[in-house]
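Dear H.,

Thanks for agreeing to be a second pair of eyes. The structure we're designing against is below in token form, covering all 349 positions.
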């Protein structure tokens, strides 16, 4: 209570008045009345002290209630005070909390509606794509059986590649939409980085073999973090895919991970040409493509459209992690490939 400067000044002023009364009584020869004067002063100050203490207790309770609301409690006690300005303040805060609760409920309903809509869109898009895939495969098999249809078979192969690209694009866009809408449910559990990295690399194993690019995992034993294993594997898979697309034949992509006192740190490096300096600030921007991607794109061989790394960043950010891109360099300062650094920081207890 006395930490409040206004209260402290009022207390000092009261004590000064009591002391002045005592000095005046002594000066006029009324020393016999001095104890009674002091007793009267204490009696007069007691209700003031009691009332001030009660007000500070009420303010402390109100502060605790607000702190509870900030930490997820959705209720506030409106009946703990009687009339007075503090009761009015608490009433207004209660109204504010109820309004925020209503807004949060409305946003949750909208988020759920959007999630359901995205799921329906996903189903509606994937159904015809799946039918197209099956039809294309049947036609290709029929042409293979007939023979002397090499040109037609090659065209069908191109259609299949384009179709796979569209399916991957649609799937990634839907994930981004769910992430933007806050409709992506993320787990909060202990994730073993070694297992997670293998999950991320498994779907790309054939692609790495066909591209003649080696994938090396160098992960410290017991390295882990708190997050979502499946979605982190999705993010890491997008980074690996990006590195694979920019690494020449005979090259290598390396994933290293270790823990320190602050964070679990994951690094992905390739042996490609690296990232152009003008592209570095934009690599995680949605739909941004570097000069090399734009130059290599064609109708037959489409390259990425700049959403894989954006999705990876969104998934990592959603778990309170960080990701940054740079170029690896040798001792002479020459670029030896692209580098992506991911960190999941430990909670401070």
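And this is the sequence the design step returned. I haven't edited it by hand at all.
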């Amino acid at each position: 209570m006395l930490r409040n400067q206004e209260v402290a000044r009022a207390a000092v002023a009261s004590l000064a008045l009591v002391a002045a009364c005592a000095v005046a009584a002594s000066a006029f020869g009324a020393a016999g009345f001095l104890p009674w004067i002091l007793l009267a002063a204490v009696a007069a100050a007691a209700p003031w002290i009691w009332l001030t203490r009660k007000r500070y207790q009420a303010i402390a309770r109100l502060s605790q209630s607000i702190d509870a609301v900030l930490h997820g409690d959705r209720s506030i006690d409106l009946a703990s005070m009687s009339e007075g300005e503090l009761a009015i303040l608490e009433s207004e805060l209660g109204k504010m909390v109820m309004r925020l609760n209503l807004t949060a409920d409305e946003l949750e309903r909208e988020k759920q509606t959007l999630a359901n809509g995205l799921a329906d869109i996903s189903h509606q898009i994937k159904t015809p794509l799946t039918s197209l895939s099956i039809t294309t495969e049947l036609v290709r098999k029929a042409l293979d059986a007939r023979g002397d249809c090499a040109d037609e078979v090659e065209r069908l192969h191109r259609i299949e590649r384009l179709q796979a690209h569209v399916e991957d694009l649609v799937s990634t866009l839907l994930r981004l939409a769910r992430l933007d809408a806050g409709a992506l449910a993320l787990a909060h559990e202990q994730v073993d980085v070694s297992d997670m990295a293998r999950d991320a690399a498994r779907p790309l194993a054939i692609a790495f073999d066909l591209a003649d690019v080696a994938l090396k995992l160098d992960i410290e034993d017991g390295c882990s973090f708190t997050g979502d294993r499946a979605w982190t594997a999705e993010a890491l898979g997008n980074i690996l895919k990006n590195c694979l697309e920019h690494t020449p034949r005979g090259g290598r992509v390396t994933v290293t991970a270790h823990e320190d006192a602050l964070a679990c740190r994951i690094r992905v490096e390739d042996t490609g040409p690296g990232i152009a300096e003008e592209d570095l600030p934009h690599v995680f921007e949605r739909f941004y493509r570097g000069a090399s991607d734009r130059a290599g794109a064609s109708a037959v061989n489409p390259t990425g459209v700049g959403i894989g790394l954006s999705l990876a960043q969104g998934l990592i950010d959603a778990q309170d992690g960080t990701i940054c891109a740079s170029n690896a360099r040798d001792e002479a300062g020459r670029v030896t490939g692209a580098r992506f650094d991911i960190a999941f920081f430990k909670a401070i207890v």
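Two observations from my side: The longest helix spans residues 85-146. The radius of gyration is 34 Å.

Warmly,
E.
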